[in-house]
Amino acid sequence: MASHPSRRHTPRQQALIALGAVHPHPQAVSDPLFRDSAFFDPNDLVQVKYEMLRSVQEGKYRVAQAAEVFGLSRPVFYVTRDLFDREGLAGLLPHKRGPKQPHKLNDEILAVLASAVHEQERMLSGEELALLLEQQCGIHAHPRSIIRRLLPYLRWQEKKHQ
């Protein structure tokens, strides 16, 4: 399956692509459930992971066998099982990788920058803000990143004080 939606994809395939839930190796899925079935789709990574877990739970396969039959690895099995135990079916959905929130430009840092903007009574340039951030907080951030995070914060502050 291609990685970009097109007219050739079914709505289900387009949804899988949009969610990032396409099995990277659907051809490696060899479990009989996924052969010639309108319901079981080897491209559906969430469905494949669920059936992999279920096959081990029901004693159909051992972990190593299940991972191989469903075209995944043993480490993926264990991570999937842990996520499913913690979050249920939602744990099988793809998760956003990387930091879940900005780690440098948090609310405390944005408050420092907003205070500087209010003191100057004008919007500072990204370069000015980056220099200020470096001098006052010892944090290096790209000027565009600072502006991109600071503007919504300033708007939120304005609304809060109205």
UniProtKB/TrEMBL annotation:
<dbReference type="InterPro" id="IPR009057">
    <property type="entry name" value="Homeodomain-like_sf"/>
</dbReference>
<protein>
    <submittedName>
        <fullName>Uncharacterized protein</fullName>
    </submittedName>
</protein>
<dbReference type="Pfam" id="PF13551">
    <property type="entry name" value="HTH_29"/>
</dbReference>
